[in-house]
Description:
By secondary structure, this protein is of the alpha+beta class. It is built from three helices and six strands, in the order βββαββαβα. β4 and β5 form a beta hairpin.
Amino acid sequence: MNGSLHSPPNFVAIKLKRGSAGLGFNIIGGVDQQYVVNDNGIYVSKIKEDGAAALDGRLQEGDRILSINGVPLENLTHKAVVDLFRTAGEDVELRVQKKTNHRNRPGDSQPGHHSSMSYLGILALFAGAVAILAIVYKRRK
Protein backbone atom coordinates (compact mmCIF):
# COMPACT_ATOMS: atom_id res chain seq x y z
CA MET A 1 0.00 0.00 0.00
CA ASN A 2 2.76 2.45 0.85
CA GLY A 3 4.73 3.89 -2.02
CA SER A 4 7.98 3.08 -0.24
CA LEU A 5 9.25 0.93 2.60
CA HIS A 6 10.70 4.07 4.17
CA SER A 7 7.40 6.01 4.27
CA PRO A 8 5.72 6.54 7.61
CA PRO A 9 2.61 4.35 7.94
CA ASN A 10 0.17 7.27 7.63
CA PHE A 11 1.48 8.15 4.14
CA VAL A 12 0.28 6.14 1.15
CA ALA A 13 0.60 6.23 -2.62
CA ILE A 14 -2.76 5.65 -4.31
CA LYS A 15 -3.09 5.08 -8.04
CA LEU A 16 -6.53 5.76 -9.50
CA LYS A 17 -7.85 5.35 -13.03
CA ARG A 18 -10.12 8.21 -14.04
CA GLY A 19 -13.62 6.96 -14.75
CA SER A 20 -16.58 8.51 -16.55
CA ALA A 21 -17.29 10.58 -13.42
CA GLY A 22 -13.66 11.63 -12.96
CA LEU A 23 -11.71 10.41 -9.95
CA GLY A 24 -14.77 10.29 -7.74
CA PHE A 25 -13.94 12.72 -4.95
CA ASN A 26 -14.07 16.41 -4.07
CA ILE A 27 -11.33 18.49 -2.49
CA ILE A 28 -11.18 21.49 -0.20
CA GLY A 29 -8.31 23.70 0.92
CA GLY A 30 -5.46 25.67 -0.58
CA VAL A 31 -3.73 28.92 0.29
CA ASP A 32 -6.86 30.88 -0.60
CA GLN A 33 -9.39 28.76 1.34
CA GLN A 34 -7.85 27.00 4.31
CA TYR A 35 -9.73 23.91 5.50
CA VAL A 36 -7.50 23.46 8.53
CA VAL A 37 -6.50 26.53 10.52
CA ASN A 38 -2.95 27.66 9.63
CA ASP A 39 -2.64 24.90 7.02
CA ASN A 40 -2.67 25.45 3.25
CA GLY A 41 -3.10 21.74 2.53
CA ILE A 42 -5.58 20.10 0.17
CA TYR A 43 -8.01 17.67 1.79
CA VAL A 44 -10.60 15.19 0.54
CA SER A 45 -14.01 16.65 1.39
CA LYS A 46 -16.24 13.99 -0.18
CA ILE A 47 -15.92 10.56 -1.71
CA LYS A 48 -18.51 10.02 -4.43
CA GLU A 49 -20.34 6.71 -4.30
CA ASP A 50 -19.25 4.30 -7.06
CA GLY A 51 -16.45 6.65 -8.18
CA ALA A 52 -12.86 5.53 -8.76
CA ALA A 53 -11.81 6.54 -5.22
CA ALA A 54 -14.75 4.73 -3.58
CA LEU A 55 -14.11 1.57 -5.60
CA ASP A 56 -10.43 1.65 -4.62
CA GLY A 57 -11.38 2.17 -0.97
CA ARG A 58 -8.15 3.64 0.39
CA LEU A 59 -8.84 7.37 0.01
CA GLN A 60 -11.07 8.68 2.79
CA GLU A 61 -12.75 11.98 3.62
CA GLY A 62 -10.33 14.08 5.65
CA ASP A 63 -7.19 12.64 4.04
CA ARG A 64 -4.62 15.22 2.93
CA ILE A 65 -3.40 15.03 -0.66
CA LEU A 66 0.29 15.88 -0.78
CA SER A 67 0.99 15.45 -4.50
CA ILE A 68 -0.59 14.59 -7.85
CA ASN A 69 1.61 12.59 -10.24
CA GLY A 70 4.66 13.74 -8.27
CA VAL A 71 3.72 17.43 -8.29
CA PRO A 72 3.63 18.76 -4.69
CA LEU A 73 0.47 20.67 -3.74
CA GLU A 74 2.12 22.78 -1.05
CA ASN A 75 1.21 26.49 -1.14
CA LEU A 76 -1.09 26.25 -4.17
CA THR A 77 -4.49 27.88 -4.56
CA HIS A 78 -7.58 25.70 -4.68
CA LYS A 79 -8.08 26.53 -8.38
CA ALA A 80 -4.47 25.62 -9.22
CA VAL A 81 -4.96 22.19 -7.62
CA VAL A 82 -8.28 21.67 -9.42
CA ASP A 83 -6.48 22.50 -12.69
CA LEU A 84 -3.76 19.95 -11.85
CA PHE A 85 -6.41 17.29 -11.33
CA ARG A 86 -8.14 18.19 -14.59
CA THR A 87 -4.91 17.85 -16.59
CA ALA A 88 -3.49 14.84 -14.70
CA GLY A 89 -4.50 12.30 -17.33
CA GLU A 90 -6.34 9.00 -17.05
CA ASP A 91 -3.98 7.33 -14.57
CA VAL A 92 -3.41 9.49 -11.51
CA GLU A 93 -1.02 8.79 -8.65
CA LEU A 94 -1.70 10.55 -5.38
CA ARG A 95 0.57 10.79 -2.37
CA VAL A 96 -1.73 10.98 0.62
CA GLN A 97 -1.37 11.60 4.33
CA LYS A 98 -4.08 9.61 6.06
CA LYS A 99 -6.55 11.46 8.24
CA THR A 100 -5.72 12.06 11.88
CA ASN A 101 -8.01 13.25 14.64
CA HIS A 102 -5.85 16.30 15.40
CA ARG A 103 -7.31 18.58 12.75
CA ASN A 104 -8.60 22.04 13.48
CA ARG A 105 -11.05 22.95 10.72
CA PRO A 106 -12.81 26.31 10.50
CA GLY A 107 -16.41 25.88 11.55
CA ASP A 108 -15.61 22.88 13.70
CA SER A 109 -15.15 23.12 17.42
CA GLN A 110 -11.59 23.85 18.38
CA PRO A 111 -10.12 20.80 20.15
CA GLY A 112 -9.50 22.80 23.32
CA HIS A 113 -12.90 24.48 23.04
CA HIS A 114 -14.62 21.14 22.53
CA SER A 115 -12.82 19.70 25.55
CA SER A 116 -13.81 22.71 27.67
CA MET A 117 -17.42 22.25 26.67
CA SER A 118 -17.23 18.57 27.61
CA TYR A 119 -15.68 19.40 30.97
CA LEU A 120 -18.32 22.06 31.61
CA GLY A 121 -21.05 19.56 30.76
CA ILE A 122 -19.59 16.98 33.12
CA LEU A 123 -19.20 19.63 35.82
CA ALA A 124 -22.84 20.69 35.37
CA LEU A 125 -24.01 17.07 35.64
CA PHE A 126 -21.89 16.56 38.73
CA ALA A 127 -23.24 19.76 40.35
CA GLY A 128 -26.79 18.65 39.53
CA ALA A 129 -26.20 15.24 41.08
CA VAL A 130 -24.74 16.83 44.22
CA ALA A 131 -27.78 19.15 44.46
CA ILE A 132 -30.20 16.21 44.14
CA LEU A 133 -28.29 14.23 46.75
CA ALA A 134 -28.37 17.25 49.09
CA ILE A 135 -32.15 17.56 48.68
CA VAL A 136 -32.67 13.83 49.29
CA TYR A 137 -30.39 13.97 52.33
CA LYS A 138 -32.27 16.97 53.83
CA ARG A 139 -35.67 15.31 53.30
CA ARG A 140 -34.52 12.17 55.13
CA LYS A 141 -33.70 14.15 58.28
